[in-house]
Amino acid sequence: MKKFTYLWLLSFVFLAITGCKEEEEAQPAVAELIKGSWNEVKAVRKDLNETGELISEVETDGTMRYVLDGQTLTLGTPPDARNYSYTLSEKNGQTTLTFMFLGSVSHWDIEVVSQNELIFRETLPSPNHKGEMVYTTIYASYLQRR
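Below the sequence we write its predicted structure tokens.
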């Protein structure tokens, strides 16, 4: 009986040690991960009708350069680059970058694909001249770290 108890205890310890998964490396916070220089590799615009059905989709080669330093977003390349102060917020696990752009507030949802790839998405409702919702436009910029 002692041998049985000993073997049972030994097998339990063996399973406990070998059954544990290695802990995954902690990912850096989005605020730290997005810092740096990024090239836009493609830009996609999707228009959806009021039921969410795709009306049109246009994909173009990316041309924009993004630089984020924790406080300032620089869009474009010198001498035409423009600087914008930004803030980050998080709601329901979604990180959003907010800044003033062309006189209005822009909200870009950030999707971290990897440490070297990001997607910035902005969703804009598009009402008709009566203020009725006609369609939604989604802009997506696919970025790679420089």
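Residues 29-145 form a domain with the Lipocalin fold (CATH 2.40.128).
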